[in-house]
Amino acid sequence: MAIISTFELLAKPQLPSGIPGPIASLSRNVIIGYFLTISNTSLTDLPLSVVFTARTNSGSGLEGSISFLDTSGTNIASALEPTSTANKFRFPP
Fold first, then answer.
1. Phi, psi dihedrals of residue 74, rounded to the nearest 5°
2. Secondary structure of residue 22 in the 3-state scheme
3. Cβ atoms of residues 91 and 78 within 8 Å
4. 30 CB contacts (<8 Å, ≥6 apart)?
5. What is the pTM of this model?
6. Helix (H, G, I), strand (E, B) or coil at 16
7. Which helix H or strand E contains 42, and what residues bound it?
């Protein structure tokens, strides 16, 4: 049986608050991290596939994103792979 934690999303302002003038209207919140914990409480190996659904501006994708998997205290970096659906990306095993 797998136990899945709550999904945490961290976002922060792109620019510091209090910037005067027209530049202030350009600031928006940016996502700086996702945290999700999945635990296997059985003695049987379970296959896992994580697919992210993203909404991006027209013409932009997830090329600049960095994804990490940590199963034993060691971060494993990987790029998200596009799936056959336009806005879905898979974290490769």
1. -120, 125
2. helix
3. yes
4. 11, 12, 13, 14
5. 0.50
6. coil
7. none
Report the alpha-carbon distance of residue 8 to residue 43 in Å, rounded.
Answer: 27
Tens-digit pLDDT profile for residues 10-37:
777 878 878 888 877 777 777 777 777 7
Percent composition of the chain: helix, strand, coil (DSSP 3-state, to 5): 5, 40, 55
Tokens for 83? 């799936």
CA dihedral 30, 33, 62, 37 (to 10 degrees): -150
- Report the alpha-carbon angle 84-85-88, nearest 5: 110
Q: What distance in Å separates the CA atoms of residue 70 and residue 92, rounded to the nearest whole number? A: 13
Residues in the chain: 93
